Amino acid sequence: MSVRSGARRYVLRAACAVVGGALVLAGCTTNTEGDAPAVEKVKVEKVDSIAAKLPDKIKQAGKLMVGVNIPYAPNEYKDPATGKIVGFDIDLMDAVASVLGVRAEYQESDFEKIIPSVETGTLDLGASSFYDTPERQRTIDFVDYFSAGIQWARQKGKTVDPDNACGLRVAVQRTTVEETEDLPAKSKACVEAGKPPVQAVAFDEQSAAATALVLGQVDALSADSPVTQYAIKQNKDKLEAAGPMYKALPYGWPVRKGDPLAAVLQEAVQHLMDSGDYRKICENWGVQEGAITKSTINGAKG
């Protein structure tokens, strides 16, 4: 998954995108992150008994340093009107920070650099649609807060089957599970069957991957289910789902291995789940299909 074994959503924004190293000039689109409606914040109060468990370093700083990679609508992206980072992941993390009596300070980063920055202590955690996977658990801990899967999109009227994709060009965001795990496995099966491989066309931003599909530069797009569904919603006249979601995994916030912050974040988000505020945040962003009722640490199993 976007892996963000990952995950995230999209908004088509740039009119002209770089596809396969070439600048696409024809048929430039004007899809923007600003197409999304304003979403009301859920007000959350501090819970002293949970906040007291925060590591002293974070208590003293009064903030959580959170790594994000944008745009990945509806999970995390910039509001074009204000320039602020917004989205489902952002609202949920802000709510968790409120429970803990601190604020979340978001630091933009390349997706693949977030986990290494958490490991070195430059960031306290990441909140960027990361899939919790057994492989990633070897070096990092995950506080699970959502369930998502891989879902493909195609141009309307085109025939694309994720289970029979040999020879297709599929847009993905770079370093996501879609690029590093799912498409390679599908491609290997094709080659072993004597068929042409699946070609992953990787982009640094999810918006560019979606734009490539809208412009017909690729045959399909593969991303996390909330991201794919959002891209389709933003381009209802051009895109449609290419099959249902599959390979569901939990989204998790990556925290340094063994860091006591993980248990505090888990308790904070569980409080939001129990109070109903978590559900409200999911519904506000239209992602309630992936809502869960119990947070775990490293819940993904091999």
Automatic annotation (TrEMBL):
InterPro entries the record matches: SBP_3_CS, Solute-binding_3/MltF_N
Signal listed as a keyword: yes
Keywords: Signal
Keyword Chloroplast: no
One Pfam family this sequence matches: SBP_bac_3
Subcellular location: Cell envelope
Domain Solute-binding protein family 3/N-terminal stretches: 63-289
SUPFAM superfamilies named in the record: Periplasmic binding protein-like II
Entry GO terms, CC: cell envelope
Annotated signal peptide: 1-26
PANTHER family in the cross-refs: ARGININE-BINDING EXTRACELLULAR PROTEIN ARTP, MEMBRANE-BOUND LYTIC MUREIN TRANSGLYCOSYLASE F
Family label: Belongs to the bacterial solute-binding protein 3 family.
Protein's recorded name: ABC transporter substrate-binding protein
